[in-house]
Write a structure and sequence with these properties.
single chain, Heat Shock Protein 90, 3 helices, disordered N terminus, 6 strands, 6-stranded antiparallel sheet, globular
């Protein structure tokens, strides 16, 4: 595997200030597998981070059935960070336990409230990404701060 120059690894979650694994009770420090990647917040980062997520899922031996949901969630969350945050970077952190996979996307841009929401049945593009993520996830939480947004989606591993 060759290095991608604009990507750099993120430290393990256990070493990140403010990381709290308690929202996922099936994850203990000894059992958790964690990997992350930080890249420039550009359109090119979406497929790169999708490949990273797929590669980690395969490396960890996660069930093949997780691929579609994982790739969709990564695409939506990273795409939102690239499109709406205005920040220079986007980070993806994956944390797998026995029965769940946490997908965390963090940006360091400024929160921009949504102007409007598409009406039901409206053919307009956009505005449905977090609804799609919520449909794929056991739970999805959005944490907004003045210095960025962190979204965590928890996917079932079917265990």
């Amino acid at each position: 595997m060759h290095a991608i120059p604009h990507l750099r690894p993120v430290g393990l979650a256990e070493h990140r200030p403010g990381f709290d694994p308690t929202p996922w009770p099936d994850l203990t420090r000894a059992e958790r597998r964690t990997a992350g990647c930080l890249t420039a917040a550009t359109a090119a980062s979406v497929p790169v981070l999708r490949r990273f997520a797929r590669g980690m899922a395969a490396r960890w031996g996660l069930p093949a059935g997780i691929d579609d949901s994982l790739l969709l969630v990564v695409s939506e969350l990273v795409g939102n960070a690239v499109r709406h945050s205005g920040g220079p970077d986007v980070a993806l952190l994956l944390s797998a336990g026995h029965s769940t996979l946490a997908v965390e996307v963090t940006d360091n841009g400024r929160w921009r409230p949504r102007v409007g929401r598409p009406r039901h049945g409206d053919l307009a593009c956009g505005g449905r990404g977090l609804d799609i993520v919520a449909a794929c996830a056991l739970r999805c939480t959005v944490h907004t701060r003045p210095n960025g947004t962190r979204i965590v989606a928890e996917l079932s591993l079917g265990a």
